[in-house]
Every structure is written in C-alpha cells, then in structure tokens.
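Hey all, quick one. A colleague (J.T.) asked me to put the zinc ion job into the tracker so the inputs and the structure tokens live in one place instead of scattered across chat threads. No bug as far as I know, just bookkeeping. Sequence used:
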Amino acid sequence: MLRQVAESVLVHESEFVQSNAVVVQGRAGVLLIDPGVTGSEIDCLANDLHELGQTVVAGFSTHPDWDHVLWHAELGEAPRYGTDRCAAAMRDLLSDAGAKARIADHLLETEITGQVPLDLLGLITGLPAETARIPWDGPQVRIIEHQAHAPGHAALLIEERGVLVAGDMLSDVLIPMLGDLNSINDPIEDYLAALRLLEGVAGDVDVVVPGHGSVGGADQVQARINQDRAYVHALCDGRDPGDPRIGPSAKPGWEWVSDVHTGQLQSLAQRSERVGTSR
Ligand SMILES: [Zn+2]
C-alpha cells in the first residue's frame, strides 16, 4: 500500500525490516527509489502504480546493498540509477558468479527466504560523482553522496517537497551500521562526515524517510542526526551508547540490533589493534 508523505511523494513500507520504497510523481511517470524486497511486495507496488495510471520512468538505488538494488520485470525497463561508486560495487559483485547464490543463502536465515527476486539485482547505471541531481522529468532531486555504511551511498533531497530520503541512516529502529570495517579507510570519520552533510540540509527538510523504519516529521530530522552521532561517538569511545534502539528498550522483534552493536564493538576493537600494530 502506498502512503502519501508529502505532495507527490509516496512511501511503500515492507514488512521486512521496515524497508521503505519511495515513489516520486513526475510529469510523465514516477521515480522509484529502492523498490522493495520481496517479489509479492514489488508486484503490489507495480499494481498500485498501474492503478494510478503511472509508469516508472526512472529508478534509483541509494546504496549497493542487496535490499536496495532489487527490481522486478513488472516495473518495466526504466534506467536504474545510483552513484558511480554504487554501480561499480554492483558490477564487482555481479562479476562473481556465486554472488547471488550467497545472497540467497544469507536469506535462508530470514522469513523471506525464496521470496526475493534476484534476477535483476544490481543492474545500476552509474551517475558521475559530480552529478548534482537525478536526470529525470519531475521535482528536482538532489544527490548527497557520502561513504558512510556503504560505498557510494547517497541520500536524496526532494527539494521542492522538503523530503529527505536518507538511505540506511537516520532510522528509528536501526543503529548506524558502519559497513565492512576491513575495507573502509576510516569508517567513523566517514560516518560523521555523512551526518554533517545531512545536517547541512536538515533545515530544508519536513519529512525524513529512512531506508528502514518510520517516516519522521520535521522535528525528527535533527533529533535522528543527533542520535546517530551520539551512537557513533559512544561506539568509537567504547562507551555504552544508552541508545533506545538497542537493549531492553528496543522495539519487539528488533532485539537483533543489539547483536549488530556487539559485533561492531568487537570489529572496531580488532581494527584498532590491527591499525595500532601496523603503525
Ligand atoms: Zn538496508
């Protein structure tokens, strides 16, 4: 079901990790950001669009994680954009013949195993780094690229509508996930730098749509930036973050986020040992 969150901006929320697909109404059709997760949900979205008399004229994936780069034939053959780095990460992944099988294996542990359409995964057209806006015929959508969480991650600001599509940041249910700590140069600084970029536009935002979690209003934008920043600082210092998204205050069904936190603490400790000894 599509829910309007601002003029000509609609959101389709998945049951799986509260993943949000975003639809932006343009002049000749819609822009579809992070289409969704399961085949039946993406079909449902395609049907909703069909009933509204809309076709997808452009897609965009906020970052190169499997749950943000899916597609289904029902959505048609519009160009599917992402940042150049996002597209490169996907080309890299798809050059490995076993990659989709590994994703399918990983999904065996979830309630959506066998329900995720992987055929068209990751076929992203890269937009050069200097591209300021998504090339399409609709409200201007500014690309805010950064390197937090995943390479070539982009938040999108739908300027005329005051909507920030945050990708996998600013969630009320997921803590900041720093990504692969073995491959990232400086995951803490990358994350803080990305938060500063988002903070730079926060004053223009009335609605924030995280990749996973609840859509927030104007009062939530700075609050979520502060919450993510406080978490990253605490993680970096090895302090208890006292974060409502982990521990006993976590929403039912989200207890696993605490395990993610523990994993990040361990990886960071190992990383500082490694970096320390190699200097
Ligand atoms: Zn995600």
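Adding what we noticed when we looked at it: Residues 65, 67-68, 168, 211-212 surround zinc ion (CB under 6 Å). The two ends are 53 Å apart (CA to CA).
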